[in-house]
Structure formats: C-alpha cells, structure tokens
Amino acid sequence: WGVGWYSGATLINSGTGKVAITGVAQQTNTGTSLGFGVEMGGSGTKITSARASADAISIVGNSAAAASSYAEGILIGSSGTTEIVATGVGGGVTLHPAAGVNEPETLYVADPTYVLANGGAINITALGGNSAANLRIDADSDRLILGSTAASNTSFDVTSSSSNITLDVGSRGL
Q1: Can you give the pTM of this predicted structure?
Q2: Tens-place pLDDT, residues 36-54
Q3: How far apart are CA 114 and CA 149, in angstroms?
Q4: Is 152 exposed, middle or buried (CB count within 10 Å of its CB: 0-12, 13-18, 19+)?
C-alpha cells in the first residue's frame, strides 16, 4: 500500500498552493494482500486547490510492482462523496493510476466522485499491468462527474468550466 486514508473524513485544502499526492505500492505478495498506490477511503474525501495553474492537483498511484489482485493504482472508496476540485481560474487536475500485474481495475471509483476544474485541463491517464486493466465505476457509486456541477452537489464549487477533459485508458475498456 502506497499512501491513503481509510477512516473518518479527509480534507486537503492547499489554498493557492499545489496538491501533489504520490503513492507507490511495494507489495509483492500475490493473492488478497493490499497493494493500492493511493486509496481514498473513510467517510468522504475533499481535495481542493485554488492554484491557477495546470498542476494545481496531481494524484499519482503506482502499483505496477504489486502482484496482489487488490492493486488498483487509485482506489476511490469512501462511504461518502469524493471531491477533487481545482477552483483557481486555469487550475487543472491530473489523475495517473498504474495498476499491478494481477489487477483488472486501474482506477476504481466506488463512490460518487467529482473531478472538477475551473478552466484547466482534467487529465486521467490509466495504465495497467494487466492487459485487461480498465477504469471501473461501481454500479452503486451513481456517478463520476468531470468538469463542473451545480453548487449544491459539492463543498468546493466549479459551476461552469471550459476545461479540456482527457480520459485515456489506452487499449483497455471503460
């Protein structure tokens, strides 16, 4: 397991600074050992930056060395809503998960998740060690919202956006 939180509510607010989270899983056991690069759990996660640059928020989860069948690059699995929001004009968000060799999900979204940016690009590049690795959005999670949303849906608001959105899972599926 690289980096993460598993209980309680989590708030990361950098003001006008950058948010950079990088988790590298070192788990080499096979089977059901945990090998997440980054896990966002607990009762809700809010990550925000008002930085007005493309690198306002960067989350990298690298589980490429993990042999476990639980080695998502990034796992979003809280019991509440997850918000990853760049509120500064031109602020961007990058999610870069890399799964382990035995893991079919590179980025796993298990709860309602908002990835919002105020004009800066949203880039999600999912790499996998497994040829079947993909982006998984749980049927129970309701949604993965990219770009903007109504203010009533989130604590940190981007209600309109001109952001370019790139979702690259290579030859893998959604």
Answers
A1: 0.91
A2: 899 998 888 999 999 999 9
A3: 8
A4: exposed
